[in-house]
Amino acid sequence: MLNQYQNLMDLFLRHLESYKINLIGKKPEELYEPEDYILSLGGKRLRPLLALIACDLFDKNPKLALHSALAVELFHNFSLIHDDILDAAPIRRNMPTVHKKWNTNIAILSGDVMLVKSFQSLENYGFKEFKKLSKIFNDTAIQVCEGQQMDMNFETAAHVSVEDYIHMITLKTAVLLGCSLKMGAVNAYTSEENLNNIYEFGKHLGIAFQLLDDKLDTFSENLEKFGKQIGGDILASKKTFLLIKAMELSDDRQKKDLIKYLGLKTIASDKKIECVLSIYNELNIKKLCEQEAHKHTNIALDNLNKVEASSLKKDQLKIFALELLKRQV
Amino acid sequence: MLNQYQNLMDLFLRHLESYKINLIGKKPEELYEPEDYILSLGGKRLRPLLALIACDLFDKNPKLALHSALAVELFHNFSLIHDDILDAAPIRRNMPTVHKKWNTNIAILSGDVMLVKSFQSLENYGFKEFKKLSKIFNDTAIQVCEGQQMDMNFETAAHVSVEDYIHMITLKTAVLLGCSLKMGAVNAYTSEENLNNIYEFGKHLGIAFQLLDDKLDTFSENLEKFGKQIGGDILASKKTFLLIKAMELSDDRQKKDLIKYLGLKTIASDKKIECVLSIYNELNIKKLCEQEAHKHTNIALDNLNKVEASSLKKDQLKIFALELLKRQV
Fold first, then answer.
1. How many CA atoms lie within 13 A of B112 on its CB side?
2. How many folded domains does chain B comprise?
3. What is the ipTM metric for this complex?
4. Assigned domain for B153 exists
5. pLDDT for the residue A194
6. Quick check: A82 and A28 in contact, CB under 8 A?
7. A-chain residues within 8 Å CB-CB of B30?
8. Best of A138, A164, A170, A186 to disrupt the B interface by mutation (most B CBs within 10 Å)?
9. Chain B, nearest residue to A113 by Cα
C-alpha cells in the first residue's frame, strides 16, 4: 500500500475484520465460509480505500464512509466469485477459487448472498444517504454485469472495435472505481458537481489502469513484479486493446498472419507470441496503447482538478493515482 | 386466478408488461432476453398479488404497492433461474430452463442482474419507505438463499429432523410470502403490529402450502390437476416432510426397509413407490402431514384475525388463502 494512505487502509482493514468475525460459525456454513475465505485472500482493497479517500478529500471523517467501503469490497468479491465460475478459473490469488474449493452450486449461492450483503451494508446510513448511495450502487452493479457479459460476447465476436472495447472495460472495471469514490464523497455530503467530477476521475483512472494492464501482459519487462505469465493474452487469443488495435491498423498481410496465428491452438507458445509480437511492433501498438491510456489519465486528472477540495489533498490523490498507473508501466 | 382478486392481478400484469417492454432490444441481449423469457413463462404471480392485496387490505390504493410487487416477482424469478442451475433442472413450466436454453454462464449473470433490478424497483419510493422496504427485502433475500443452501445440504445429510425441515421450508419458501404481504402493507403505511401480523400470516400460510405440496407429490388423486409425476419425491429419495416423519416414527423393520428402498436407484419405479407408500400408510403419514399443515394454517389465520382491517376484506383474504391450500389437498 502507498504510504500516504496507510492510516485509511488500516481503518478499513479493522472494519473488515470486525465484519468477518460475524461470519465465523454462521449457518449454513456452506454459504458463509466461502465469503470469509475470499475476503481473507487479500487483494489491493483499492475500492474501499477510494471510498475512504474521497470522504477524507472533502474534509469529513473517513469513518463516515466505512459502510460504503465495505459495500464496494463485498460487491467486488461477489463479482470475483461469479466471474471465476464464468471463466472456469481454477486459481485466484494463488489459492483455489470458490467453485474449485467447494463447488459451483455453493459458489453461485454464496455469491448471491454476498451481493445482497453488499446492499445491506448501506442500511447503516440515514434515509436520504441510504437512498442516494443505493441508487449509485445499483446502477453500477448492473453496469458491471453488463460489462462482464460484453467481455464474454467478445470471445466469439468476429469484429470488436476499439470503441466497443473501451465501453466494455468502462463497464466491467472502471465504473466501480468511480462509484467507490462517489459513494465516499456522498458520505462527505459534498456538491453534485464534486460528485460527478470525482466519479469521472475514478472512471477514467480505471480505463487507463485496464489499458496499461493489457499492455503489461504482453510487454512487461519485470516478470516477477507482474507475477503473471508474459504473453498470456496472446496465447489465449484474447481481444485486448493491443489485438483490437492491431487488427484495425494491419494491412492485408499482417491481418492474415494475425488471424492465422491467433487461430492456432497447437503452435508452440514461443512461436505464437513471437509472431504476434512482431506484428504489434511493426504497428507500434505498445506506443498506441500507452497513448490511449495517457489520454484517459489526462481526462481523469482534469476531472480531479475541477473538484473543489484542498490542493494538498488533491495533489496527494494525484500522486497516488499516478503511482497506481506506474505499476502498470 | 381466484375471481375476487382479478382486478388486482390485472393491475399487476399491466405493470409487468410495461416493465417488460423496456427489456426488448436492451443490450447486451444475452442479459435481458433471459429476463424477458422467464417473466413470460407465466406462473401464479402469487407474490406480487399478495403485495397488492395487503395494500388494499389497509384501504390504500393498491397501485401504491406496484413497485414492491414487481420487486418480489423479479426476486422470485431470479431465484428460479439460479435454483434451476443448482438443481440441474432442464424444464420449467414446460419450457427449457434459462441455463438450458442459453447456457450456465448466461443464467448466472442474467440472474445477478435480475436480483439487482429487484432492489432497484424500490427506488421509486420516497426515502423512508425505500429504506424500510429495502431492509425487509434484503433480510428476506438472505433467508431465501440460506433456505436453498439448507435444502441442498439435506440431500446428503444423514439425519434431518422435522424441526430442521420446517425451518428450511420457512426460509426457502415461506418468508417471501410473508415479505410480499408486509411490503404491500408498508406501502399502505399501517402500524408495526399490523406489519408483523400480516407477515406471520403469510409465513405460516407458506409453510402450510409447502407441506401440502409435499403430500400432493405422493398422494395426489388428480394427476392432471397437479401436472407432475406422482411419486417423484419418493423416486428421488427426497427428504420431504413425509419421509422425515416416517423415519422418525418407524420401527426397526420399517426403518430398515425405508433405507433399503430409498438407497436403491435401480429398482423399478412402481416397486419403489409401492414399498415406501405402504410404510407411509402403516405410519399414517398422510394424516400427520395434513395435521402439521393444519396447525400452520391455524397460526396463519390467527395472525390474520389480529390484523386491524375491515372484516369483509379479512374474510376475503381468508377465503383466498383457504382456496390456495385447497388446491394442494
1. 37
2. 2
3. 0.95
4. no
5. 98
6. no
7. 149, 152-153
8. A138
9. B142
Query: Residue A223: pLDDT above 60?
Result: no
Residue B313 belongs to domain spanning: 191-329
Same domain? For B140 and B195 the reply is no
Q: Give the tens place of pLDDT for each residue, A69-87.
A: 999 999 999 999 999 999 9
Residue A174 grid coordinates: 472502471
Residue B205 confidence (pLDDT):
98
Find the CB nearest B109 among A120, A130, A148: A148
pLDDT at A110 over 60: yes
Q: Which of B36-50, B63-77, B213-227, B289-303 has the lowest mean pLDDT?
A: B213-227
Quick one: B269 and B195 in the same domain? yes
Whether residue B109 is found in the same domain as residue B227: no
Size of interface A-B (CB pairs under 8 A): 111
Across A245-284, where does the E strand assignment appear? none
Residues whose CB falls within 8 Å of the CB of residue A132, separated by 6 or more in sequence, listed in order:
A186
Between CA B90 and CA B97, with CA B94 as vertex, the angle to 5 degrees is: 35
Taking any CB pair shorter than 8 Å as contact, residues of chain B touching chain A are 27-28, 30-31, 82, 85-86, 104-106, 108-109, 111-113, 115-117, 119-120, 123, 127-128, 130-131, 134-135, 138, 141-142, 145-146, 148-150, 152-153
Q: How much of chain A is in helix, strand and coil states, percent to nearest 5?
A: 80, 0, 20
pTM: predicted TM-score of the whole model, two decimal places: 0.96
Task: Kindly report the CATH number assigned to the domain that includes residue B36.
Answer: 1.10.600.10
* Cβ-defined contact of B105 to A152 (cutoff 8 Å): yes
Please give the single-letter amino acid code of residue A65: A
